[in-house]
Amino acid sequence: MLRTFSITPVETARDLRDFINLPKRLYRAQAGYVPHLDMERRDTFNPKKNPYFQHAEARFWLARAGDRVVGRISAQVDRAHLERYQDGTGFFGCLDVEDDADIYARLFTTAESWLHDKGMTRARGPLSLSINEEVGLQVEGFDSRSMLLVPWHPPYAGPRVEAQGYTKIRDVWCYDYDVQNAPPTIGRKLIERGGLAGRVKVRTVDMKRFDAEVRTLLDIFNDAWSDNWGYVPFTEAEIAVAAKTLKPVVIRDLAIFVDVDGESVAFIVALANLNEALRGLNGRLLPLGWAKLAWRLLVDKPRTARVPLMGVRHKFRNHPLLGAGLAMMAIDALRENGKRLGMTNAELGWILEDNKPTNNIIRTVGGRRYKTHRIYEKGLR
What we know:
Blueprint: E1 6-9, H1 13-27, H2 38-44, E2 56-65, E3 68-78, H3 79-85, E4 89-97, H4 101-117, E5 122-125, E6 127-128, E7 134-135, E8 137-140, H5 157-162, E9 167-178, H6 187-193, E10 200-204, H7 210-224, H8 236-246, E11 250-260, E12 263-272, H9 274-278, H10 289-298, E13 304-312, H11 314-317, H12 322-341, E14 345-352, H13 356-364, E15 368-379
Parallel strand pairs: 4-5, 13-14
Antiparallel strand pairs: 1-2, 2-3, 3-4, 5-15, 6-7, 8-15, 9-14, 9-15, 10-11, 11-12, 12-13
Helix pairs in contact: 6-12, 7-8
């Protein structure tokens, strides 16, 4: 029997609560899924707290069958992207839906109509909400460990999206890195052969200057990633919020800078996998969630981490020896410090499938590709 359902915009506090809660109900029995903290999601979707909205606008919708929420989607127009690429591309994201073709069709029709009315000529996603946040629809590695700020989707989602006329434009890959058993790299040898012997210093982040260090890191990132497909630079406001947000999950000895002649030119940063500590909390910190979270973070510490950011400045990156050498020296420090701290694994990602230099480096140092997320695109009429 066909169900009747409605598509309505998120307008009230109850709507937002339902929007945040839907994935928790849909995926609660899935091994690879751990819910976000509700408070973090509220801030992400709040234009007053997320500086993304200073250069973008978004709309959110729910599908309801009676009193039951059965799907959700967002649509975004990012002026920073449009100014950079001038390609008429809008975005969709926050895609979580029961396995029903009609619900997918209605949600996408609603989001695409809004994007078309905004003058967009194509839709791309899922991005939740931007290329610098959660990227892609998971199509491989569904049972892998849950990782901080890495989206999870069920196996049926990819075919349902493709049935709406969307085709793959890029895959992004995540690698599992065995911190305890990965071999040393040849980074130092490459540096010596490249003529920088004695001029390179590897150091950890200075937590007393944390805000300044984050600015240095994101300055390297904006330089290193500037010619990556889909890249949109972090704004000053986003950098400030990132510094505040990242500090609780940055492990000092796993945030590495590589300096050449006193200038920071490369970095790698691993964040404690907060999802280890969040498992079983269902996104809530009350009434007992705070105590459980504090215990898990301070006493029963996470043994896995995620490396969401790694980069080498342009002036070294394309050198036949120095680009790989600087990156490998950073990875060596991450591995050595991680072993000492008792870390077992780190996830390196995401990496664009056609970023051959970075993929080659990660494979060379022992990374094993274990997750794939897909970015889709469709022309709008």
